[in-house]
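Hi U.,

Before I forget, here's the chain from the pilot set. I'm dumping it here mostly so it's searchable later in email.
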Amino acid sequence: MLSKEEIKNNINNDWHITFESQKEFRYGLCSFIVDTCQKLNLSYNIASLAMLITNYFYVKNCYFNYNKLTMACAALLLSSKNETSQNKLAEISKEYSIFHNKDLDSEGLHKMKKHIGKYEIILLKELNYNVPDEFPYDYIYIYSDLLYPDNNQEIANLAVKIATDSYFTYANNIHKNYVVALACLVIAAKFLDIPSILDENFRHINNMKKIHKKDMSIEEFNRAMNQYDILSTYFTKENKEESSMAEDDDDYFERKTFAEKLYPGLKIEDLIDCVGIITEFYEDMKEKAQ
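Structure:
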């Protein structure tokens, strides 16, 4: 995770690269990553992780010191390894050559592979060999079910697309996955012209206390209980005597603040900040389209 201060005062400022120029570099690299993933039929998890670690790397390192596109390819290679055992180096190298309109022979392709491989090691060292493996997508599906039971699929599908777009920004470098997920649902609700959790007339938050194990499949419940603190806090077992909560579930829930009902420890100001970061990206895209 990065702080907003680290991003604002990153090393590129010392090289007199304006924040607007940094943003253009970031948007360009992220576009290349997304396009390459689409061409190679790679998942949005791979695209998201590649964008996340590329953004992180260039907060810590100057854009002028490393070939930007090669670093994006290295991020794609590393991200694909994180999800699948298939080595995508050859395909990624080919996309690099296509982008530059270069028809590489076997020797040229071999050199390109080695170059990307070297950048992958540089990237791993900067990450301290700690590659993130969590994303906001699962949170989006769970929150959609809890907060929008009547049209959960529509808002979830849109929020997932927004979550992928969020990696064009620093939102995921700054905020936790559940914050990004909630921010994407807020923006999706605005696009769909329905109340969001930040609106005073939103009341679906109280549906969360009505979710019980008997209403879910065993697989759904086990995944929720094992992976998400929010659900292990509010989901109850069929038998109250087996519950880990010492207090009555409904009373326990009602005593929570609005933010705590969404996620223990959530700060509304963080959610609003995250919404603003992602919204800025759409405003930039709208401006470019005009």
